[in-house]
Amino acid sequence: MKKFLTVLGAMLILTMSFSYAQEQAGQLFGTVTDEEKASLPGVTIEGTSPKLMGTVTAVTDEMGRFRLRNLRPGTYTIVFTLPGFATLRREGIVVALGRTYYLNVSLNPAVIEEEITVVGESPMVDIKASGTTLEISKEMFNKLPKGRDFTTVVTFASGVNDEIELTGSSGTGLSMDGATSSENTFFVDGVNTTNLFTGDTAQQVVF
Q1: How many C-beta atoms lie closer than 10 Å to residue 70's C-beta?
Q2: Is residue 179 over pLDDT 60?
Q3: Where in the chain is the domain with CATH 2.60.40.1120?
Q4: CA 74, CA 68: separation in Å to the nearest integer?
Q5: Around Cβ 197, how many Cβ atoms within 10 Å?
Q6: 3-state secondary structure the chain
Q7: By Cβ atoms counted within 10 A, which residue in 3, 90, 97, 99 is the most buried?
Q8: Residues 170, 187: contact at Cβ < 8 Å?
């Protein structure tokens, strides 16, 4: 019985550690095919980012599938290589905290060795989460009317509105999709900064 409890405790610790690791990172799954949509096994995938100390790698299986796990939140460059095919680079891929993304790519045969670079937004779909996302470029940010903290900017997102503070207490006073401010959760650089008593953010981000 004592041995069983010890094993059960170890399994619980491993499960909690795995769940914590998932919350602290993102994942990128996908498939690689040729121009005729046939699966390509043996493709080497390398991911790099300023957030990483090195490179994350994977190799496609017999179905052309790959997985890049435990990706720190940030912007990535993903490189796909296979002898006989042109190298493909996907730049500017943004991975968010705790999100799972799915990416399909196609490699073209290389008569003469060449490298193809794709710059811009990646047509990826978050397959495990739904919600509203607001991305503001530097140029747009400089043109927007705003105050001294982020709460004056997030109201530009769909479904986000100012909420009247009936209690007179300080806070963000943000209503999202009809919910009250006490139902909000705030994260700053991946850290939960929500005030447990008011539901407001305990850490203001000033401009």
Answers
A1: 11
A2: yes
A3: 22-126
A4: 14
A5: 9
A6: CHHHHHHHHHHHHHHHHHHHHHHCCEEEEEEEEECCCCECCCCEEEEECCCCCCCEEEECCCCCEEEEEEECCEEEEEEEECCCECEEEEEEEEECCCCEEEEEEEECECCCCCEEEECCCCCCEECCCCCCCCCCCHHHHHHCCCCCEHHHCHHHCCCEEECCCCCCCCCCCEEECCCCHHHCCCEECCEECECCCCCCECCCCEC
A7: 90
A8: no
Class of domain 22-126 (CATH, top level) = mainly beta
Report how far apart, in Å, the C-alpha atoms of 174 and of each of 29, 144, 164 are.
34, 18, 9
Report field, pTM of the whole predicted structure over 0.70 = no
